[in-house]
Specification:
With 309 residues, this protein is α/β, with parallel strands linked by helices. It has two domains: 231 residues, Aldolase class I (TIM Barrel), CATH 3.20.20; 71 residues. The chain is 48% helix and 14% strand. A nine-stranded parallel β-sheet has the order 5-2-1-11-10-9-8-7-6. The longest helix is centred in the last third of the chain and has 22 residues. The relative contact order is 0.12. The mean pLDDT is 96. The chain binds flavin mononucleotide.
Amino acid sequence: MKLLSAPLQGYTEAAWRHAHAVAFGGADCYYTPFIRVERGEVRGRDLRDLQSACCGTSKLVPQIIFHDRDEFKMLVEAVVRAGYDEIDLNMGCPFPPQVHKGRGSGIISRREVLEEVLEEMKNCNNCSFSVKMRLGVSDSDEWRGMVDILNDMPLSHVAIHPRTGRQQYKGELDMDGFEALASALAHPVVFNGEIHTPRDIDALASRFPQLYGVMAGRGLLARPSLFKEWSEGTVWNRQRMLSGVIDMHAMVFDNYTSRLCGETQILSKLVPFWEYLAPFIGSKLYKSVKKARSIADYQKVINILSEEC
Ligand SMILES: Cc1cc2nc3c(=O)[nH]c(=O)nc-3n(C[C@H](O)[C@H](O)[C@H](O)COP(=O)(O)O)c2cc1C
């Protein structure tokens, strides 16, 4: 069972990925947040996020989001130039600005574009691909109109988040929809959605024995030891987890304070680190983190946490 760290814009950037790999580990692969074309060019800061890419022994796979064949080609070329030979295709983003332009989950209903992308893929001899997708934008049957094209694509796997774009990140997971799409696919399948505990992984593995892997996003941010606990077959106590979180935070902190200028900018990158960890550190400490207006104030809060260690 492959253990995959999901991409989350604003959270799983290079600093987080590196620190997670070193302090906790357990993920076979990290995916970058989607790399996009903006004003006719591949966004510079997306490419910079690829350069500081050390994830220990885990693999890093860049993800791209595209509107058409030209964007697809431009992004693939940029990512291959940056030294990567595996690319994940975003067919799941639910954000209206992307979906309305036919990107992310919006591409699921665009057969003609997917056919062109398939042709383009055949020219990419130096690169392999995977897909991360939803069931559709507003209808959980939308995938039926394009699954044949997916099956013709040379993909290592397809990760399915069994919701529609309209559901965003809330609401029931459509397990029947997942099963229907998984059994129509000729590729290995990864499950993504609401994996929070090692037992959730066990439940998926026993319900879907053919599963190639599981991918966790918010669950891994909230419980960075999730994959390690599952593979070790142990449940970490608070002390062990806290010590890992403190180590991980120290690396994220060093990364941002050495690269960025201005306390406000640094704090704006540090606060998201704690967002999904708020239940673990407690809402009072999390509120203090959010209220900090200087690095000195912020460190006072972190010191309280470290003392518990
Ligand atoms: C803030 C945020 C940003 C996200 N950014 C991306 C992204 O860049 N690419 C992508 O494929 N999915 C993105 N996702 C979706 C996650 O990768 C994942 O599919 C989703 O959160 C469901 O999995 P989870 O329940 O394990 O978090 C994002 C989700 C959130 C909440």
